[in-house]
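Module 6 notes. Inverse folding takes a fixed backbone as the condition and produces residue identities as the prediction. Think of it as a translation problem where the source language is geometry and the target language is the twenty amino acids. Below is one complete input and output pair. Work through it position by position during the lab.
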């Protein structure tokens, strides 16, 4: 039986951080063993927030590719490519934009959320309003069966499904597949200040951070606000450190830290020191692989070129079918 197809992407709007890794990338690495996976660097999407300084996108795209490979994506198991290297994405986006009612886009909750979150860039552009249409083109070009998302992101995929239904009904041919949500269990990880980990908030631990940077950042992390003094008992479940201990520290250490925190046997400084050590140890495999790939940039570029050739063959075929259904061919 043919493996189901997965499609997902990441914007190269900056370095990847632990939120990106545990929110998506770690899951992708496991999916590539079970599904036919297409993963793309969404550099055209990045223009929605980096349009004033687009020259940075090229460097960020390379860094994203390095992070993907360092985290375990295998070009022998999945297809990785750069969105802008396949013009069929832009062409299908244009075609779909002609059939999508504006109110569908205006009701998109992410449109408002991003405008509230990103204050240093004017996000009231046509391109940002219409990004779900480009996102739909990205997905349906590859006839993806599933898009991996967290449970809170699943409703965002419904707009793509609506666009597919509208196209297929208008042109009386089932050209596109309605993509399903592949729900993944995403651990809740906040940034250094307790807010959502984000490049925008300057509160992230990056996959590219070295040992000194990680130690410094962990030392600055917000802890249980109720522990004003060293001998105040704490609550690990409201502390920003403990979710990271659950990921990086052995279970016995987690239990000991939780008990000692509740009885004020250890202070927040002790807890941070232990987390720094286990986090660095846990991140070392990615650190070492990053250095290897950074030393061989041509290898990274060739992986993306090979992925582009494979992906474009699929994209061209799908776009041709869409045009034939519309009688444009």
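Target side of the pair, the amino acids:
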């Amino acid at each position: 039986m043919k493996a189901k197809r997965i499609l997902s992407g990441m914007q190269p709007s900056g370095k990847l951080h632990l939120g990106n890794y545990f929110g998506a990338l770690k899951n992708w690495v496991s999916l590539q063993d079970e599904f036919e996976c297409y993963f793309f660097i969404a550099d055209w999407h990045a223009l929605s927030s980096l349009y004033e300084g687009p020259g940075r996108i090229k460097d960020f795209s390379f860094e994203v590719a390095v992070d993907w490979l360092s985290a375990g994506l295998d070009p022998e198991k999945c297809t990785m490519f750069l969105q802008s290297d396949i013009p069929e994405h832009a062409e299908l986006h244009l075609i779909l934009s002609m059939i999508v009612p504006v109110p569908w886009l205006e009701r998109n909750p992410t449109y408002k959320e991003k405008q509230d979150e990103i204050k240093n860039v004017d996000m009231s552009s046509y391109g940002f309003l219409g990004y779900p249409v480009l996102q739909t083109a990205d997905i349906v070009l590859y006839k993806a069966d599933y898009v991996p998302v967290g449970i809170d992101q699943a409703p965002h995929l419904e707009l793509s499904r609506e666009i597919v239904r509208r196209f297929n009904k208008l042109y009386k041919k089932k050209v596109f597949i309605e993509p399903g949500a592949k729900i993944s269990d995403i651990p809740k990880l906040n940034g250094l200040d307790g807010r959502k980990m984000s490049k925008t908030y300057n509160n992230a631990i990056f996959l590219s951070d070295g040992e000194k940077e990680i130690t410094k950042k962990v030392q600055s992390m917000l802890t249980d606000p109720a522990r004003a003094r060293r001998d105040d008992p704490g609550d690990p479940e409201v502390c920003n450190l403990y979710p990271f201990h659950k990921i990086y520290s052995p279970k016995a250490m987690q239990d000991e830290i939780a008990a000692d925190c509740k009885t004020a046997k250890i202070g927040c400084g002790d807890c941070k020191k232990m987390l720094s050590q286990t986090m660095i140890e846990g991140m070392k495999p990615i650190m070492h692989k990053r250095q290897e790939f950074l030393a061989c940039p041509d290898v990274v570029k060739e992986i993306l070129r090979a992925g582009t050739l494979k992906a474009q063959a699929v994209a061209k075929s799908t776009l041709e079918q869409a045009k034939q259904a519309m009688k444009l061919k």
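Reference fact for the lab report: The radius of gyration is 22 Å.
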